[in-house]
Amino acid sequence: MGAAYDNLATIYVGEGDTAKANELWDKALKTNDMQVRTDVMNSRFNHQCATADYKGATKTARQLIRTKDSLYMSWRENDIRSNQMAFDNIKARQEYERKIETGVFAIILLSLSFVVVFFFLRYRTYKAKNALAIDQRRIKDFEYQIVEFEKQGQEKEKEIESLYRKKEILLDKHRKTLSEGHRLYTHIMEGQTTVLWRKKEFENFIEYYRLVDMSFVDAMDSEYDTLSPKYKFFLVVEHLGKTDKDIMRIMGLADGSIRSIRSRINKRRTTY
Questions:
Q1: Nearest one of 74, 53, 75, 60 to 29, comparing CA atoms
Q2: CB–CB of 194/201 below 8 Å?
Q3: How many CB atoms lie within 10 A of CB 47?
Q4: Which residues have C-beta within 8 Å of that of residue 233, sequence separation ≥ 6?
Q5: Which of 77, 86, 105, 214 has its CA 20 to 30 A from that of 262?
Q6: What is the 8-class DSSP label of residue 190?
Q7: Cα separation of 97 and 196, whole Å?
Q8: pLDDT at 257 over 80
Q9: Would you state the pLDDT for residue 222?
Q10: Cα–Cα nearest to 178, from 143, 136, 146
């Protein structure tokens, strides 16, 4: 509105109506827009100079100077405020990016930790199973030697006694696993089921059965690509002469599951 009054006042000046122009300029100066007020004062100042109204021009000039000073200060404050806001925004963005980077790094570090722990546990489990398999072969060798020495009579009693001690040492080393496996094997042979078994029970059963029939368990390990303990158990009970009906009852399988399991096992076969 102030700019409109200023333009209208300029028109009245051109028509020679200075009183009406001053009235409009006074109205225009009531605006809060510092830039418009400066433009209005410039118009009035130029008119006063043109009409030799030096007293009025001096007064207007002083007002103009104060207004320009105020406008400059306002610009400066706005500029400082804008710069501060820009600085704050940059700082906030940098802080946000730093938090994101820290979060990503923490996630990567945590993921790597899980991977390391996972492979460490896998390696430790593999190492323990491998050690058990080796010790079971040694136990079988000791049993074979004992049988051979017993055929030779009393002259081999010391050797036989030494082999028994070595065998017991190895059995004690894996007593918990083998005892649990023996208990599970006995339960199955007595007609119980695996419905409540977890993976560990199937593993213990297989490790014990290695002592019963090492060649069969070794054949499963060599002829199939990483069979699960449950599938190994399926092959063992099948090897023990259990019928499909028996296996379904023992493992809690539904009709048709036997064929599906055999198909999955055959897909794992590496030798024929």
A1: 60
A2: yes
A3: 20
A4: 194, 202, 205, 206, 251
A5: 214
A6: T
A7: 51
A8: yes
A9: 87
A10: 136
- Taking the CA atoms of the chain, what radius of gyration do you get in angstroms? 49
Band of residue 182 on the pLDDT scale cut at 50, 70, 90 = very high
- pLDDT for the residue numbered 234: 96
Any idea how long the chain is? 272
Contact 71, 34 (CB under 8 A): yes
- Mean pLDDT value across residues 73-88: 70
Check: CB of residue 159 under 8 Å from CB of residue 114: no
Residue 224's SS3 state is strand
Report the C-alpha gap between 12 and 22 in whole angstroms: 9
The token pair that represents 86 in the structure block: 């820009």
Per-position DSSP letters for 233-251, written without gaps between them = HHHHHHHTT--HHHHHHHH
Q: Which H helix or E strand runs over 37?
A: helix 34-50
The pTM for the full model equals 0.49
Q: Which amino acid is at 62?
A: R
Q: Is 226 left (phi over 0), alpha (psi -120 to 50) or beta?
A: left
Q: What is the pLDDT of residue 241?
A: 94
- CA separation (Å) from 157 to 144, 165, 170? 15, 12, 20
Mean pLDDT value across residues 240-267: 92
State how far the Cα of 263 lies from the Cα of 272, in Å rounded to an integer: 14
Distance CA 236, CA 229 (A): 10
